[in-house]
Design goal:
With about 90 residues, this protein is an all-beta fold. The protein has no helices and eight strands. The strands form two sheets. A four-stranded antiparallel β-sheet has the order 2-1-5-6, with no helix packed on it. Strand 5 and strand 6 form a beta hairpin. The protein is globular and about 35 Å long.
């Protein structure tokens, strides 16, 4: 089970859908010897959306208790429907 955290606070938890902790269109690129990347869409109704800030804080992707990605948010853009696209390296 994958979970996403920013500054230790949950951003995505499959068990937290009742609390609005959902993201859409996730894209994860992991490779040996390269910087990985994570990208996802998040709506403003996610309680963690207001916490996400570019270049401040650490975004972590965990599979169970194992951290598989750690990085900073490098892009934060809004689509025409006001959905935010977050990209981290």
């Amino acid at each position: 089970m994958y979970k996403l955290f920013f500054k230790g606070s949950p951003v995505y938890d499959p068990r937290g859908q009742d609390f609005g902790l959902i993201i859409t269109d996730p894209d994860v690129h992991l490779a040996v010897g390269e910087a990985g990347s994570v990208a996802f869409n998040i709506d403003d109704d996610n309680p963690a959306a207001s916490l996400l800030t570019k270049l401040h804080g650490v975004l972590e992707l965990r599979a169970g208790s194992v951290r598989i990605f750690k990085g900073r948010i490098t892009k934060d853009t809004r689509d025409f429907d006001l959905t935010r696209r977050i990209e981290a390296e």
